[in-house]
Amino acid sequence: MAIDFTFTEEQEFFRQTVRDTVNRLILPKAAELDEKEEFPWDLWKEFAGLGYLGLRHEERYGGMATDTISQMIFYEELARGSCGFAMSVIMQILMGTYFISRFGNEEIKQRILVPAIKGEKIGTICFTEDQSGSDLGGTRTLATKVDGGWRINGRKQWITNGPIADFATVMATVDPKLGLKGLNFYLVERKTETRDGFVPGQKLHKLGSRCSVTGEVVLDHVFVPDENFLGEEVGKGVQYAGDILNEVRV
């Protein structure tokens, strides 16, 4: 049986709507965005106001709950206008909020996910370290169990949205000797005067996609409470990573 790759009427209408938005808001300033090497907060607020940051999330949290094809249409059209801006937006929609949506309790979803969908908070995910990127088994960021939570210590590199993020999903190991079997994910918020958290490190200066802010995320024995453990059980992090990375690769 032949496979029909034609968009539905709804998907084609959505594609044209996104295309018109990109043509109007991004294309006229695409070169300027790259030259300035600054995050475009005005565009971020525009796209948040149009509801796009909630593309894949449930309507009860302010999302659109769109189908996968429509999500791919949005990512493609956005990248057509500015690859850099698309990188930051896609990080927010897809990877930055995925684990919170899947594993976060209701309080976390209301406190983190809902503002993220509104564009009031920016998120990221932290896999990469200077000695481990694709080799997740080489992760050295350490999560140590303590009373009421975990202490996380390490440094993440080349993190999209890292220097401007309000929250991060951090991959850490309970024991480097366990390799892939020791990996877990934790919700870590940015450090403030009243809250422990990660600190943005060095911002990278890139040759392209320069309006997407990329840099280090530093975790100096950060305490995170038990409820910030994102998963059903310890040691399943690599399985969860595979779930989201497979979707990203599509």
Sequence of strands across the biggest β-sheet = 2-3-7-6
| Gyration radius over CA | 18 Å
CATH class of the largest domain, please? Answer: Mainly Beta
Q: Which spans of ≥5 residues are poorly predicted at pLDDT below 50?
A: none
Helix content: 25-40%
The CATH fourth-level homologous superfamily of the largest domain: Butyryl-CoA Dehydrogenase, subunit A, domain 2
Number of helices in the DSSP assignment: 8
Judging from the principal axes of the Cα atoms, what is the shape?
globular
Order of helices and strands: HHHHHHHEEEEEEEH
End-to-end distance: 23 Å
What would you say the CATH architecture of the largest domain is?
A: Beta Barrel
Task: Describe the secondary structure blueprint for this structure.
Elements: H1 9-25, H2 30-36, H3 41-49, H4 68-81, H5 83-96, H6 98-103, H7 106-118, E1 123-126, E2 142-146, E3 149-160, E4 167-173, E5 183-189, E6 199-203, E7 214-225, H8 237-249
Parallel strand pairs: 1-4
Antiparallel strand pairs: 2-3, 3-7, 4-5, 6-7
Helix pairs in contact: 1-4, 4-5
